[in-house]
Amino acid sequence: HVDAPLRLRTLPALRRARRVLAEQVAAYRPDVIHAHMFGAMLVLQGARVGKTPVIQTVHGNLPWFSPRGTRSWMQYAVTRRFARRIARITVAISESVRRQTQTALGLSAQRLRTVPNFVEPLPAVLASGRTRERAAEVPRIGFVGRLQLRLKGLDVAVAALARLPHARMTVLGDGPDRPAFERLVREHGLEERVEMRGMRRDVYAQLRDMDLLWVPSRAEGFGLVAAEAALMGLPVIASNVGGLSEVVRDGETGRLIPSGDPRALAEATQALLADPATYRRLSATGIAHAEATFTRERAADEYLALYAELAGIAT
Length: 315
Prior knowledge:
Layout: H1 11-28, E1 33-36, H2 37-44, E2 54-58, H3 73-86, E3 87-92, H4 95-105, E4 112-114, E5 140-144, H5 154-162, E6 168-172, H6 178-187, E7 194-198, H7 203-208, E8 212-215, H8 224-231, E9 236-239, H9 244-247, E10 254-257, H10 262-273, H11 276-293, H12 296-314
Parallel strand pairs: 1-2, 2-3, 3-4, 5-6, 5-8, 6-7, 8-9, 9-10
Helix pairs in contact: 2-3, 5-10, 8-11
């Protein structure tokens, strides 16, 4: 693993980054280069790395995968060229992202793989007693993520909470739409029932204090917090979009609802909170599914197999 201070805000900085990478590759002589994010694509497209095979991971449903998206044609062109001419294999974090990548970038199925994300292991102090029996009389619903009103479905969450007069909501995270979200909370008269905890590092400990997690996103490449909640035995109600439909198994580890539908979110929440047997089953099944599927060891083994495949191609 090579770290370098690569700040790509100017053309001279990009040139320096490419030079640093070429020097590191010459000194380290890696069998494979693994690229993440758009900055890595920019650097690698001009760096002299010889015939070292490159693999890249696509981490989400990025709008600039489409030339009609919110970013420039340049970014789309760079991404498409990198995936087609430089990266031998492109890895997606979910089947949803893999399908989008194949369609948007025109890649063959042979050059695409899916390696689901993993969650960090639980601290030992939180590892026991995770199966939930039933929600509290005043249920605490959680939201964890970047505060982007429409993308993350926070407007849907507020409207759904207004339909649940006995529930409270805990919000972890921050983001550009926090003022708009807080204004929406006030407009619905929910100030006393919404607690803003900001950015937290102890996410697992925070999840332990919740009765239910909402993930009402309108788009989601994977939905890492849904996997983290499952590992903590916390039932999840999520939008049936993107990678969320792979992380949350409807009726087995949580519930999936139509995106953008506050009524469906509120009704699914009411039904689950009123059914302790189903609540406990989803909690227990979620733990088992997360422990079997979203582990660091599983992801490492799959990536190591891909590295070995690429190194074999190179020789």
